[in-house]
Design goal:
Layout: E1 10-14, H1 22-32, E2 36-41, H2 44-58, E3 62-66, H3 72-85, E4 89-94, H4 109-137, E5 140-145, H5 148-152, H6 160-180, E6 185-192, H7 206-213, H8 224-234, E7 246-249
Helix pairs in contact: 1-2, 1-8, 3-4, 4-6
Length: about 260
C-alpha cells in the first residue's frame, strides 16, 4: 500500500492556541512542511492568533476555531467549518489537555470527570469526527499526546487523574491503530517528559528547571520543539509504516 499523502491536505491541531504550548509548535512545523493547518482551542482569540501567525510565516491556508472539545456538538460544528474552508483533513494532532496536581484523597468526582473529559473524551470526539474523511481518502495520520505520567504513575507534576487519563490515551491509540490500518491510516502516541510549558503549573523558573533536570540523563527540561519535531515526523509520508507506537520524549528520565 502506498504511503503517499495528498498534496493538498489539512492537519487539525487541538489545544494549539497557547503561545508557549506544544500544539502551537506542532502547527508551525506542519505549516512549514506545507500542510494547511486548522487550530482548535477553547480560547477562540488565541486560536485565531495562532492560525494567523502560521499563515503569515509559511504562506499556507489556516483557520482558527474556538471550540470546547468535550462538547460533541461543538466538535462537529468546528470540524464542519474546517472541512468547508480548507483541503481534506488528513492529519490530526490531539494535543489539548489539562493537568491535575491534586493528591488522590482530595480528588473530587468533578475533578476526575474534568480531567478525563479534556484528555480522553475530547481526544475521542475529535478523532471520531475526522476519521471518515481519512477513510475516504485512504490516507491519514493521527498522533495523540500521552505523558510520562502514564508510564511512571505521575512523579513529575500531575497525579492520579492525569496519569490515568493519559494511560487511557495509550490504550485508545493502540486499539484505534488496529482498526484504522486497513484504511491506510496510522495512529501513534507521544509521551513527553517534563516540558517547559504552562501545563507544568506556569512558566518554569530557572531554579525549578535545575531541580527538575537533576534526574534527567540529558540534564535539561524539554522544549516544545523537542516534541513537535517528533509529532511532525509521525505525520509525514516517511512515517507510513509506523503505527500503534508510543514514543518517549523525556531526555532519558523514563527508560522503557
Amino acid at each position: 500500500m502506498s504511503t503517499a499523502l495528498p498534496t493538498e491536505r489539512t492537519a487539525i491541531v487541538t489545544g494549539a492556541g497557547s503561545p508557549r504550548g506544544i500544539g502551537r509548535a506542532i502547527g508551525a512545523r506542519l505549516g512549514r512542511d506545507g500542510w494547511a493547518v486548522a487550530v482548535l482551542d477553547i480560547d477562540r482569540d488565541a486560536a485565531l492568533r495562532t492560525a494567523a501567525g502560521i499563515a503569515e510565516a509559511h504562506r499556507v491556508p489556516t483557520l482558527g476555531v474556538g471550540v470546547d472539545i468535550t462538547d460533541e456538538d461543538a466538535v462537529d460544528a468546528a470540524v464542519d467549518a474546517v472541512e468547508s474552508a480548507l483541503p481534506p483533513v488528513i492529519g490530526l494532532a490531539n494535543v489539548a489537555g489539562v493537568s491535575s496536581p491534586i493528591d488522590f484523597l482530595d480528588v473530587t468526582t468533578a475533578e476526575w470527570d474534568r480531567v478525563f473529559a479534556a484528555n480522553v473524551r475530547g481526544t475521542f470526539l475529535v478523532t471520531r469526527r475526522v476519521v471518515p474523511a481519512m477513510i475516504a481518502a485512504r490516507a491519514g495520520r493521527i498522533v495523540s499526546m500521552s505523558s510520562i505520567s502514564a508510564q511512571r504513575g505521575g512523579g513529575t507534576y500531575s497525579k492520579v487523574p492525569y496519569s490515568a487519563a493519559k494511560a487511557a490515551v495509550i490504550g485508545f491509540t493502540r486499539a484505534l491503530a488496529r482498526e484504522m490500518a486497513p484504511h491506510g491510516i496510522t495512529v501513534n502516541c507521544v509521551a513527553p517528559g517534563p516540558i517547559d510549558t504552562d501545563i507544568m503549573g506556569g512558566t518554569l523558573t530557572a531554579e525549578r528547571k535545575v531541580a527538575m533536570s537533576a534526574d534527567i540523563p540529558l540534564g535539561r527540561v524539554g522544549t516544545v520543539d523537542d516534541v513537535a519535531a517528533l509529532v511532525t515526523f509521525l505525520m509525514s509520508e516517511d512515517a507510513g509504516y509506523i503505527t500503534a507506537a508510543t514514543y518517549d520524549v523525556n531526555g532519558g528520565l523514563q527508560i522503557s
